[in-house]
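Dear colleagues,

For the upcoming journal club I promised to circulate an example of a predicted protein-ligand complex. I picked one with zinc ion because it came up in last month's discussion. The inputs are reproduced below in full, followed by the predicted structure.
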Amino acid sequence: MFLHFGHSERLLNYYEDESAVCDNCGEKALTYRIVQKYYQIQGIPFLPAHKYTGVSCENCMYGHNNVISENAKRYEKLSKTPLYLYSGALVLSLTFLSLIVLACLSIIFPD
Ligand SMILES: [Zn+2]
């Protein structure tokens, strides 16, 4: 049996900003997409990685990822990482913790 390790990404949120100006056409209507990357094992989210911001213009269809701007930083702060992206790490931690507790109990109360 092979375990499939990998990474994926999930759209956290998007914001339509009517005050931001497109670098390509000068239109004042950009859409910011906040995307969370995460690691997974067998399709189960294990740990979140970094976020990035993509921007696109509806007028000229110009767009790019990894935007570094004050708006991008603000929107990334507003988009919290969902707790379920820690599922794998939480299950693994609880498993080890319960094994440690069981080992301690068997030492304290032998038969
Ligand atoms: Zn544009």
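Two points we might discuss: The chain has a mean pLDDT of 93. The longest helix spans residues 87-108.

See you all on Thursday,
B. R.
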